[in-house]
Design a protein that fits this description.
mainly beta, eight-stranded mixed beta sheet, four-stranded mixed beta sheet, 5 helices, 23 strands, 38% strand, globular
Length: 370
């Protein structure tokens, strides 16, 4: 069979000391040309800790001919930035509990460290040794390939694989995850006939997703409560792509598409909150065009980024202390506080919400004590 050049093209990661790229996900790929197609896929991404996620991928493959065994691969970038990138022979350092199950049976897999995208030739993987990878760790010039032999029966085949990943982070991202979708076009039909993407990153989260494989935020469904809008590229931002903002108060996001031929990858970013460095919160009232340098008034935040002591006037302090309740939709009796939060794009008033400190997160309870 004709060999395929694997999809992965190593990116250049530019990180300061406060940025860490840990891992990406990747659609499974056949190592060579095949007539097996992807009838259905359900990709589920669920955050299970502050910076850790569980990935579960359910596939329905269709083999139109006789039973056959093919080599299947999963590719993962090397870590980069402010992170321990020491190579491991047993897999990418920030991927754990990797499993493959085909038609009800667990499938054994191996890991190879490879240097370039043409690593598969004439039925063999051209790998480098652990010692070679260790010498190249600073350049991140190698990547990991999880590979296994899959016996596809004639007709429908069910494959599920799972793993956990440590999420990336930086000064502008509380956490982020990259997942390579375009690899799905390596299968026979060059598409996923029936594709579902499920994202559950927790309650009260702001998620930014570049519109690389969809056109509008309205193509997504929220399983709980929240709001979303399309955000065009701004010269003030660090990258040059159109995005969708999702303010998730509860539940998650679902994207569905038939005959899905992704032209871009999935990137999920939860923006971090910049340290508040101005003397006050600025204009406490005014029109919706008012913009602040700080993001402490955003939907999601880490309490270590909120310096209440630098909110020099009393109204600023009250606004910051009431942030946990505003995130849940509390309607304030104070006209000044209500006017401030009404201008925030994430604010969703909930007449039925009754403040309850016992139901706040630990970060939020810490904020209230400052």
């Amino acid at each position: 069979m004709k060999a395929l050049l694997p999809l992965l093209l190593l990116p250049v990661f530019c990180f300061a000391n406060d940025g860490a790229f840990r891992v990406n996900g990747n659609q499974l790929i056949p190592m060579y040309e095949t007539d097996i197609s992807v009838r259905k896929e359900i990709l589920a991404i669920k955050r299970i800790a502050d910076r850790q996620a569980q990935i579960t991928v359910y596939y329905e493959f269709f083999n139109p001919k006789d039973d056959k065994t093919i080599e299947v691969g999963f590719e993962a970038y090397s870590p980069a930035g402010d992170v321990d990138a020491t190579p491991r022979a047993d897999g990418q350092p920030y991927i754990d509990r990797f499993t493959v199950n085909l038609n009800g049976a667990n499938v054994p897999w191996k890991v190879a460290l490879v240097r370039d995208k043409s690593y598969y030739r004439e039925g063999k993987i051209k790998a480098i040794t652990l010692a070679q990878a260790t010498k190249e760790v600073e350049d991140a010039s190698f990547f990991y390939v999880y590979h296994f032999k899959a016996l596809f029966r004639k007709g429908l085949n069910i494959l599920t694989h799972t793993y956990t990943v440590d999420l990336s982070s930086s000064v502008v991202e509380h956490y982020s995850l990259l997942y390579v979708l375009t690899a799905a076009k390596r299968w026979a039909n060059r598409q996923i006939d029936d594709f579902t993407l499920q994202i559950e990153m927790g309650d009260i989260q702001e998620l930014v997703i570049p519109r690389s494989f969809f056109s509008h935020a309205a193509e997504w469904t929220m399983t709980g409560s929240g709001k979303s809008f399309d955000r065009p590229y701004s010269r003030e931002e660090y990258d040059s792509v159109d995005k969708a903002d999702f303010f998730v108060r509860s539940g998650g996001l679902v994207f569905k598409k038939t005959n899905f031929r992704p032209d871009g990858e999935l990137s999920i970013v939860c923006p971090s909150q910049y340290t508040y460095y101005s003397k006050t919160l600025g204009k406490h009232t005014g029109d919706g065009e008012v913009k602040f340098d700080s993001r402490v008034d955003s939907l999601s935040f880490s309490v270590e980024d909120v310096y209440v002591g630098q909110a020099s006037d009393e109204l600023s302090k009250k606004i910051l202390h009431n942030l946990p309740f505003a995130r849940r939709g509390y309607i304030f009796k104070s006209r000044e506080i209500q006017a401030y939060y009404s201008r925030q794009p994430w604010y969703m008033p909930d007449p039925g919400y009754v403040p309850d400190e016992s139901k706040l997160t630990q970060d939020e309870r810490t904020l209230l004590k400052r």
